[in-house]
């Protein structure tokens, strides 16, 4: 029998019935795509890990050079403060630097704190060393190393070049896995750093990083080297936050903070013995730890044959006179130059080995011993 009209649809249709075979196919494809993505991600991760390991081995393995070989283009950077330094004092320092630079084929860069007053003020003028180095990097962009040496320091052994004295034997001079800031910083220097990766060479005195003499490596811009770590380091050190923080020792404490808590700086840092290129003209008294009872000593006093004598804090201590102390060593230096030019004595020997001093010797030792 046929009806004139189709049957009326129910007001309660049955729930939609899914196609189970089609749904299973979609799920299978989705799982395949997920597995493929995981495999690609795993392979990419493995590639990056292997690449990092291989590059690290190439950079830090013992197969690399143990020193920085060959002659280098070196610039001696000195910042004067003409408001407190006399013309005679500046003349002595420049004469000393010019002779050393001429003897070894180095360049010199002299400037004054007033040049950077607008950049440094209201911070202490000692901050001027940072923009001065940035200035030197700009003028001598092709030079490879910059030696920042305080104006209150004198080069006392002109026979020692930086290449032979520090750069070439750098591997053997590195102080590895020691507190960055003495005596007990929890941050230590790296034990696997190689000279090829070194960009900053410093020393330590009894309580701080001795920043009045340090060497900064420059990486000139090339098609394969588009960054410059030295410029980054100086910009980070001169950060307005550090200058506004008013560290007790200004740029010195800011530098200590930087090398301890910024791995990008610590990874390029090498510490060497202080007397290698930053001897003081006074002995460091022993210090006894009130908790452990251990007496700490530090060999910092200049001895004949050392490369540099530094008159640290001679402008802070009212009992000291920088010009008198400089004059004593400058006279010794002039006599040394005369003997060198006359070939009457050989001064090419390395500095004497560090000596330990008892408390009585340190207390009774004069500041100057020729």
UniProtKB/TrEMBL annotation:
Gene Ontology cellular component annotations, sorted alphabetically: mannan polymerase complex
Q: Which residue ranges does the record annotate as region Disordered?
A: 1-23, 345-370
Keyword Glycosyltransferase carried by entry = yes
Source organism, top-level taxon: Eukaryota
Protein keywords? Glycosyltransferase, Membrane, Transferase, Transmembrane, Transmembrane helix
Residue intervals passing through the bilayer: 35-54
What are the BP-aspect GO terms?
protein N-linked glycosylation
Q: Care to name a GO molecular-function term for this sequence?
A: alpha-1,6-mannosyltransferase activity
Q: Does the keyword Transmembrane helix apply?
A: yes
Q: Write out the similarity annotation.
A: Belongs to the glycosyltransferase 34 family.
Would you tell me the protein name for this molecule? Mannan polymerase II complex MNN11 subunit
């Amino acid at each position: 029998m046929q009806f004139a009209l189709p049957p009326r649809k129910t007001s309660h249709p049955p729930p939609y019935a899914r196609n189970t075979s089609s749904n299973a196919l979609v799920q299978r494809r989705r799982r395949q795509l997920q597995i493929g993505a995981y495999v690609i991600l795993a392979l990419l991760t493995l590639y990056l890990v292997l690449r990092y390991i291989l590059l690290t081995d190439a950079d830090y393995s013992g197969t690399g050079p143990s020193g920085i070989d060959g002659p280098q283009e070196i610039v001696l950077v000195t910042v004067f403060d003409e408001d407190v330094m006399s013309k005679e004092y500046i003349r002595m320092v420049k004469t000393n630097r010019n002779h050393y630079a001429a003897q070894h084929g180095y360049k010199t860069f002299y400037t004054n704190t007033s040049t950077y007053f607008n950049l440094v003020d209201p911070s202490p003028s000692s901050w001027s060393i940072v923009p001065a180095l940035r200035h030197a990097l700009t003028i001598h962009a092709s030079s490879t190393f910059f030696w920042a040496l305080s104006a209150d320091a004198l080069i006392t052994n002109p026979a020692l070049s930086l290449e032979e004295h520090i750069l070439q034997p750098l591997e053997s001079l590195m102080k590895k896995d020691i507190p960055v800031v003495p005596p007990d910083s929890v941050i230590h220097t790296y034990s696997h750093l190689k000279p090829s990766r070194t960009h900053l060479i410093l020393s330590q005195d009894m309580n701080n990083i001795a920043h009045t003499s340090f060497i900064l490596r420059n990486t000139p811009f090339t098609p394969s080297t588009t960054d410059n770590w030295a410029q980054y380091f100086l910009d980070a050190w001169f950060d307005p936050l550090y200058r506004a923080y008013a560290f007790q020792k200004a740029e010195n404490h800011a530098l200590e903070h930087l090398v301890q808590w910024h791995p990008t700086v610590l990874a390029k840092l090498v510490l060497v013995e202080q007397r290698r290129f930053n001897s003081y003209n006074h002995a460091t008294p022993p210090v006894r730890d009130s908790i452990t009872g251990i007496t700490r000593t530090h060999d910092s006093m200049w001895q004949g044959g050392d490369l540099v004598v530094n008159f640290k804090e001679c402008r802070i201590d009212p009992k000291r006179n920088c010009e008198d102390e400089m004059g004593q060593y400058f006279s010794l230096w002039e006599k040394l130059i005369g003997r060198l030019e006359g070939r009457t004595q050989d001064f090419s020997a390395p500095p004497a080995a560090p000596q330990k001093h008892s408390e009585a010797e340190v207390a009774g030792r004069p500041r100057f011993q020729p």
